[in-house]
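Database export, one record per block. Field names are fixed; values are copied verbatim from the stored entry.
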Amino acid sequence: MNIKEYKILLVDDEKDILNHIKQELLREGFYRVITARTTQEAKTLFMAEKPQLLVLDIMLPDGDGYEILQFARRHADVPVIFLTAKDEDVDKLVGLGLGADDYITKPFLMKELIYRISAILRRAYQFDHQRDFSFQLGEVEIDFSQNLIIKDSQSIGMTATERAILKKLYENKNRVVTKDAIAQTIWGEEMDGNEQSLIMHIRRIRKKIEVHPSEPQHLITIKGIGYKLKV
């Protein structure tokens, strides 16, 4: 399926922003775009329309985007992009353990949002299953064929972005992978402007694969350069 055939649910309480994003997506050929302005409307549309991607504002009149994400993940493993107003929102996403695939800070360029939507849809739905495999990190198993991390006898899902980062690091296991190389894999561009987003994903991956995430033994930061996966 062409990525422009996937259904996208946009949620923002500001009507002008919502309409602008929708019109730009339609102009780019994403013709299955639905919109909601409240948490309740978003939940209802999610169940009725079964979108393949959510683009969520955080602050809504009857709740917030975090609530919508938690609701959606109880029903489907759908990728999510958050529209945030400040970096503190990113810290909250990590602290709550919410698996957003990406976030973009307001104000943003429409071409950047459209690029990220395209990249996430490709990662989520168009990866090559024939190249899937699993590997061990100590007592933790990473299984790309099922999109799962098995830790302490529990199965933990991976977002499309987490999967892409782990796969890139494993393909270069025990070697340093630069931030730019990881960014190229995720966003198709260099690190510029994406460092906070990458840090968010690395934190979440550590929570899933490390026994003590604050003292990582496998996903190691190489200060000023990038990361290394010790296998």
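Remark 1: The chain has eight helices and 14 strands.
Remark 2: The CA atoms of residues 128 and 145 lie 10 Å apart.
End of record.
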